Amino acid sequence: MDVQLEIGLKGQEKMVVGHKDTAAQYGSGLVEVFATPAMVALMEKTCLGSVLPFLPSGSGTVGIKVDISHTRATPVGQEVVCESTLVEQDKRRLVFELVARDQNGEIGRGRHERFIIDTAKFMAKLD
Questions:
Q1: Within its chain, how far is the Cα of 123 from the centroid?
Q2: For residue 46, which of 15, 60, 84, 112 is within the disulfide window of CB 3.0 to 4.6 Å?
Q3: Looking at the annotation, which residues are catalytic?
Q4: Helix (H, G, I), strand (E, B) or coil at 51
């Protein structure tokens, strides 16, 4: 599978923090604020969504590495916006830079790597 994506490709996803997205609900903390695992999931979704329209039918991506800092708490009810930028591609390996913000500014940033897969072949290996 030879897919060449444009370096600099951007993605964006938004969400409103609900109680299901809090550290207390994830079990990653005891407080009712946006959980780090929920932020990471939003970041992964942002990266996937940015490249999916450019992949061949039957292809997808899977996350393989996350290096993220969650620097500020976001309360329930606030909107979080995540932006991704594709900064590197090495064959099927994709590297993204990410930043997440709420209405008060930056709440997290980092890098994320994903790998382009043939979905059917990937799932067949699990059998």
A1: 21
A2: 84
A3: 36, 44, 70
A4: helix
Q: What is the pLDDT of residues 27-82, one digit of tens each?
A: 999 999 999 999 999 999 999 999 999 999 999 999 999 999 999 999 999 999 99
Spatial distance between the Cα atoms of 96 and 111, rounded to a whole number of angstroms: 6
Report yes or no: 52 and 11 within 8 Å, Cβ to Cβ. no
Residue 100 corresponds to which tokens in the numbers above?
Answer: 């997440």
Q: Which two tokens stand for residue 119?
A: 């979905």
Residue with tokens 């799932």: 123
Structure tokens at 113: 């790597």
Q: How far apart are CA 62 and CA 116, in angstroms?
A: 7
First-last CA distance in the chain: 22
Q: What phi, psi does 122 have (nearest 5°)? A: -60, -50
